[in-house]
Each structure stands twice: as C-alpha cells, then as structure tokens.
C-alpha cells in the first residue's frame, strides 16, 4: 500500500492510533510492529492500514501529529519573537533542547528508516530543511543587526 494514503475514517481513531504509535516507539524503538500499535490503540491491524496505508505512512503522519501535540507552531512563534536575533538564538537552543528530548526515539526511527523507504527519506529531508530554514533566518537576523562576526 502507498505511504501517501488519504485521510481515512474517524479522526478520534486516527488520533488513538498515532498516540499509541508514539508511546510504543518511545518505549520500544524501531522494533514496534503495526499489530502492536493496533492492539494498544484498541483497533484492528486493518484499521491501521486503512488510516495510514503502511508503516511509512504511519511514521510520516506521526511526525506531524507530534508537532501538533507539542505545539510546534506556538514554539516557533516564541523562538522568532525574541527581541533580538541573539535572543531568538538563545530561545532556539533552549526550545530545541526540550523538544529534541521529547521526540528522540521517534527521530532515531525516522532517521534510520530513511535509507529503506523513500517516503520516510522525503519526510526526513523536509524536516531537516525546515530546521535549517529556521536557523538560517535567525543567523540572518543576527547579521542584519550587525552582531554576527564577519568570519561567519
């Protein structure tokens, strides 16, 4: 099945599956099977396939689910809302230290799985590209404020 399955079924069931997948990945890492996720979410394995298409589809959807659950939009606004570029950089470091700890096991699975699955590789590249974009905008702001060492 395609990892680009359209949104399917009950949103609450989808949320339960994603929450179960997140918890199991945090506990067990990459060895989690879809049947484990289904059992924890209280749905059939077929329901997982219908909602996400395959393991890759589930992992890609999980990344977005985690971002929403942890308030990524609000966190980015906080980071970029610093009074200066240096303050935004300090906020970035503080926030990303907290955020990275929250998603570490899922990140490890996504990063290692990217070599076996193009959809996961694309999701990983997208995530890292967005991260670089945010860092670049902070550094450009510091430069515009005249606070970036000329060697940088």
Q: How would you describe what is shown here?
A:
With 152 residues, the protein is mostly helical. The protein has seven helices and no strands. The chain has helices at residues 11-28, 34-41, 45-52, 55-69, 72-80, 85-113, 118-144. Helix 1 (11-28) crosses helix 4, helix 1 packs across helix 6 and helix 2 (34-41) packs across helix 3 (45-52). The longest helix has 29 residues, at 85-113. The radius of gyration is 18 Å and the shape is elongated. 24% of the residues are buried.
List descriptors.
mainly alpha, elongated, disordered N terminus
Taking the alpha carbons of the first and last residues, their distance comes to 47 Å
What is the global morphology? elongated
Beta-strand residue percentage: under 5%
Average residue pLDDT: 91
Q: Oligomer, anyone?
A: single chain
Structural class: mainly alpha
Radius of gyration: 18 Å
- Count all strands and give the number: 0
Gist of the model:
By secondary structure, this protein is mainly α.
Outline the secondary-structure elements.
Elements: H1 11-28, H2 34-41, H3 45-52, H4 55-69, H5 72-80, H6 85-113, H7 118-144
Helix pairs in contact: 1-2, 1-4, 1-6, 2-3, 3-4, 5-6, 6-7
